[in-house]
Amino acid sequence: MELRQLQYFVAVAEERNFTRAAALVHVAQPGVSAQIRRLERELGQELLDRSGRSVRLTEAGEAVLPYARAALAAVAGARHAVDELTGLLRGRVSIGTVTSHHVDLPRLLADFHRDHPAVEITLGEDDSAELLDGLRTGRFDLVIASTGHRTPDGLAVRVIDEQQVVAAVSHDHPLAGVTALPLAALAEQPLISLPEGTGLRALLAEACAQVGVTPRIAFEASDPDTLADLAAHGLGAALLPAGFAAARADRLHSITIDPPAMRGRLVLAWRAEGPVSPAGRAMLTRAGAVLGRSGGRPDGLRPEE
Fold this sequence. Notes:
Elements: H1 3-15, H2 18-25, H3 29-43, E1 48-49, E2 56-57, H4 59-86, E3 91-97, H5 105-115, E4 119-125, H6 128-137, E5 142-147, E6 155-170, E7 180-181, H7 183-186, E8 190-193, H8 199-211, E9 216-220, H9 224-232, E10 237-241, H10 242-246, E11 252-257, E12 263-271, H11 278-291, E13 302-303
Parallel strand pairs: 3-4, 3-5, 7-11, 8-9, 8-10
Antiparallel strand pairs: 1-2, 5-12, 6-10, 6-11, 6-12, 6-13
Helix pairs in contact: 1-2, 1-3, 1-4, 2-3, 5-11
């Protein structure tokens, strides 16, 4: 059994596709397939079900996957231990981020690369739910994501920014003269929201559950600017961060939602348990300085209380 076989197997298991997995490990697809076949012959069981349109784990594959990940993590840990003893920082750090925020991410990456040119940096974008899940599974080392007031299970966070969520309507909307509205009453209106999987949508679902109502989602879009445009054209009340809506006061009227007040947070998150690579720790340290200059809080990141 070779480490590369375990690496290829984990890649296919996570990507559910041989072609994407091959691109991830920078090996031709036939090479990945051949090595996994050798691993299956050695174990005497098929690990992957290749009969469908996407690759799925067999029962044996499900059993082997955590051990394969643990073996790869142990090897990475040994390399990191040697790196720290020799004072060498190298390897790879993977960052995930939501698409809409005011974090100066290019500055963060540029500063880090200048000081640690031997570290490979990868960046991926997704919704908050997928980012946090990718953090738990090891796909990412750090993520910038939107959350509610609860810290996601198994993760540690530092708050970058926190804002109240408001309902924004056009100036000729029937609610344009209202300054505050209970969530139960707002839920009866056609709402314009980010899609499921985003932090704001999770916050809305949690708040509505507290008051026992089901929101009427009339429109969904993944870009807050699109939400604002839809609201400005009178198509409903858009759920937006207060600062974002206030910056568009010429087109939108903001309505405070209370009770319950909804406060969304943009956080930097990482795994609470398990070893953090030297590159990951260095990136986390650098994030405090760079994010402090990004338009977030004056002192940069603040720890979760």
